[in-house]
Structures are given as C-alpha cells and as structure tokens.
C-alpha cells in the first residue's frame, strides 16, 4: 500500500543509490512481470525519492498482478492506497469494485448491507506496537545497488529478542557454531546440516547432474566442511560439481533457478557495501556462504550459495530485525563479496 508520509530528506549520495536501485528493479519487474515482491520494493524506492507518479504506476501494476494471481485481499489494499492519492481515478474505482465483489462471493468480505455496526458502548480495541517498536520503526540503511528477484517470496524475520530454538540447538555429537546476538544472547547454529544433502537430492531428482557425480562431490564437500578452521570459507556443493567438469556452473545455477523458482542475483556485478555485509557475524557468513548485499526500507537482501540451507536461514532471521529476501548467487561472487570485507584463508 502507498505511504502517505512525506519522503525523507536525502543526501545526493543517498539519492543516487536509490536511483540505482530503481533502475535495477525496473529491469527486474519487466523481465518478471508477476514478481510482486520486486514491484513492492520498486514502489517503495520511488516513494523515497518523491516520485509519486511513478510510485502510483507501480502500485497499479502490482494491484493488477495480485488480481491475476488471485490474491484479491492484497489487490484491494493496493487499489485503496491508489485512491487515497487519486480519489477520482475511475479505472481503479471499477477495479476495486470488481475485487470486492470477488471477495464477497468467496465469503472473505461481507457486503456493505450485511456489515454489523459496532455497539455504542463497545470499547475500541487498541493495537499495541510490538516490543521495541513503540517509538516507531528504526531507520533503515540507504541501499547500495539492488539485486534481481525471480519470483521468490519474502521470509519475514522475527523481530525483537534473539533466542535459541530447538532447530538450532546442538545435537549430541553434532558440530555447532556459537554466535553472539545483539544483546549478548547466544545462538547455537547446527553445522551438521548445511542443506547440501537436500540440494544433492534436488539435483538428482530433477536429473540436473548424475547421481554418481553428485554423490562424489557431496562426500568431498562434507569432508572439507567438517572441521573448518577460523577464517576458512565453506566449500560449495555447486562449486565442487562444476569443478569436476560435469556441468558449467552458470548452466547449473540457471537450471536450479528454472526448476525451483528461487531468486537469483548476479552478485558479481555489484559493489557491495561492507557495512551491509557486516550485518551478520563473520563466522556465519564465511561458514555457510551467506552474505547480505542490500537494504531497502525494512527488507534486507541476502545472497546464499545453497538455498536449501534452512538452518542458516533460520539463524539469519533470528539475528536480524528485518524482513529477509533470499537470493541464490554464484559461490565465487559470494566469496568475492566476503573477501572484500573479511580476511579469508585459502
């Protein structure tokens, strides 16, 4: 939905960074016209630089796409947001009426005549902000150039406290990583399951690589990653398979994206801000090839070499008080971004 707040005052450098984000996400949304997440980010970027006309145009595209996808409640919110700015927009009024009719037929929205009126003596409910946000959301970091999204959904991170969950507790005999949280809490990250077995099964099931090659590469990667020394980066299964000459890495990544619809980011073309990379602990980023590369509004975009690393994702979501947008990237590009920020042993 469109924001009614005035755009913040931006420095020339901040303005340039957001314009770069807009340029990239225009390309993304044109190439992927049903990528609602990227359209939402593009809309927000236009608003931040005060380009309301363009923001409204993106909002209309986003609302129409929600309708195409059958997400009528989301479409209704977007149409209502447009009408707040353009109350006489006849096309949007008609579109909103159509969406409301669809919601009424599905039972998700009561028709106006059937809506119950609140009691005069009823006490209005007050929505309390979540803990730590009573004074409003913390200001976001101005984004460096943003990345490409190929229809992957945002995973919302839990705000507030950092805690150890059953999924990240160290199992008996398992190899774990201990990370410090923002308030001194500790997170135990189970290193025994890095998602490589799940990725291997995916590659075999979709016949992207032969089982013999995958099994051999997986065994070697597991041995290399078993006891990583400090500042030594993990070995990627994708990288290991491509090194064996079974398939070019670019072709393998393209096949994974095509079969899974994971987001992809050509991270090698971005000048990643070191302060963004350092949003995660060095040991987590290097040990699991995960790197934050961009922030816009309340969304941090993170590249990873293995999108099946569910425990790595869970750890990130516990550490960051942001929405998280995940992207698949080449292992070399991730290592380059990490190497520009940290000292990585070969």
In short:
Residues 116-136 are annotated as: Disordered. The protein is α+β, with helices and mostly antiparallel strands.
Structural account:
This protein has 346 residues and is α+β, with helices and mostly antiparallel strands. It has two domains: 100 residues, Serine Threonine Protein Phosphatase 5, Tetratricopeptide repeat (Alpha Horseshoe); 185 residues, GMP Synthetase, Chain A, domain 3. It has a four-stranded mixed β-sheet with strand order 1-6-5-4. A two-stranded antiparallel sheet has the order 2-3. The longest helix has 20 residues. The relative contact order is 0.12. About 20% of the residues have low confidence.
List the helices and strands and how they pair.
Layout: H1 12-31, H2 36-48, H3 52-68, H4 72-85, H5 90-105, E1 155-156, E2 176-180, E3 186-190, H6 196-205, H7 211-225, H8 237-243, H9 249-260, H10 274-277, H11 282-288, E4 290-296, E5 299-304, H12 310-319, E6 323-328, H13 331-339
Parallel strand pairs: 5-6
Antiparallel strand pairs: 1-6, 2-3, 4-5
Helix pairs in contact: 1-2, 2-3, 3-4, 4-5, 6-7
């Amino acid at each position: 939905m469109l924001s009614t707040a005035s755009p913040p005052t931006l420095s020339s450098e901040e303005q340039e960074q957001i314009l770069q984000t807009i340029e990239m996400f225009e390309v993304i949304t044109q190439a992927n016209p049903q990528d609602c997440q990227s359209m939402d980010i593009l809309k927000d970027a236009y608003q931040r630089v005060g380009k309301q006309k363009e923001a409204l145009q993106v909002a209309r595209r986003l609302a129409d796409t929600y309708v195409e996808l059958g997400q009528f409640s989301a479409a209704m919110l977007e149409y209502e947001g447009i009408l707040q700015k353009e109350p006489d927009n006849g096309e949007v009024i008609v579109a909103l009426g159509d969406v409301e009719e669809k919601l009424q037929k599905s039972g998700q929205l009561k028709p106006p005549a059937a809506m119950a009126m609140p009691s005069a003596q009823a006490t209005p409910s007050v929505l309390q902000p979540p803990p730590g946000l009573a004074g409003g959301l913390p200001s976001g970091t101005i984004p460096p150039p943003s990345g490409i999204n190929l229809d992957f959904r945002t995973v919302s991170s839990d705000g507030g406290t950092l805690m150890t969950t059953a999924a990240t507790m160290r199992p008996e005999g398992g190899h774990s990583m201990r990370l410090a949280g923002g308030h001194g809490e500790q997170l135990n990250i189970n290193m025994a399951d890095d998602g490589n077995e799940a990725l291997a099964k995916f590659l075999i099931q979709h016949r992207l690589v032969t089982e013999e090659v995958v099994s051999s590469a997986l065994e070697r990667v597991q041995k290399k990653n078993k006891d990583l020394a400090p500042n030594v980066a993990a070995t990627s299964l994708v990288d290991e398979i491509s090194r064996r000459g079974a398939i070019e890495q670019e072709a393998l990544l393209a096949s994974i994206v095509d079969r899974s619809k994971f987001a992809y980011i050509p991270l090698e073309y971005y000048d990643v801000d070191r302060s963004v990379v350092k949003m995660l602990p060095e040991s987590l980023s290097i040990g699991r090839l995960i790197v934050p590369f961009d922030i816009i509004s309340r969304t941090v975009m993170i590249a990873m070499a293995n999108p099946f690393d569910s425990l790595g994702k869970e750890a990130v979501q516990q550490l960051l008080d942001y929405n998280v947008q995940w992207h698949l990237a080449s292992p070399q590009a991730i290592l380059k971004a990490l190497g520009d920020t940290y000292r990585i042993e070969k």
